[in-house]
Amino acid sequence: MSLNATARVLPRPAAPAKAPERRLRPVERPAERRKPKLAYALIALGGALAIGAAQIALSLAITQDSFTLAGLSSQQRELNLRTHALQEELTGLSSPQLLASNAANLGMVVAGSASYLRLSDGAVFGAGTGAEWYSTVDPNGAGAVSNALLPGAAAEEAPPVTEDGAASTTSDLPPSITDGLPSPTTR
Asked: What span, in angstroms and rounded, lies between the C-alpha atoms of 100 and 94?
């Protein structure tokens, strides 16, 4: 025999695999259903009611806040309008035209030319004479331009009266352009 010879092992047939035993069997009696707990149902219902009540309360609070905000906004708008009106009145009362008119009503006059005094040596430059008894400027005269911001000047003037005694109702609005632009008639 040779040393290189080895014993040959023949394969054995495998044993048949056993099928697992089935554990299925017919139901003899249905499983007993557990009774739901009443406490869990009451807690869930109470939680839903609490959430609904909270939503209603928040909605009412927000609605009330919006009414309060609207009231404060209208009050702020009124105060802004009043502030604007008072600012216009203050502007009219502090105007140079009102100052000149009040000075003329008190008997003050405007001098013809200005005079200047140099403080270093006391020299007088200009006319150096006093004002005359009449003013060179009459703020209340016929040439005076009215100021709508001055008190008493806001009174509306009467509309011009036509020959037949009716008040004229001409407006300062531009002509209507629905029929085209107005143009002069030429020959």
From this structure: 11
What is the three-class DSSP state of 60? helix
Is the pTM for the entire model greater than 0.70? Answer: no
- Candidates 180, 160, 179; CA nearest to 171 is 160
For 151, other C-beta atoms within 10 Å of its C-beta total 10
95 lies in some domain: yes
Give CA–CA dist 134/104, Å, rounded: 10
Instruction: Confirm whether 106 is domain-assigned.
Output: yes
Q: Mean pLDDT of residues grouped by 10 in the chain (187 residues)?
A: 64 75 79 82 95 95 89 93 91 83 81 81 80 69 69 52 56 65 73
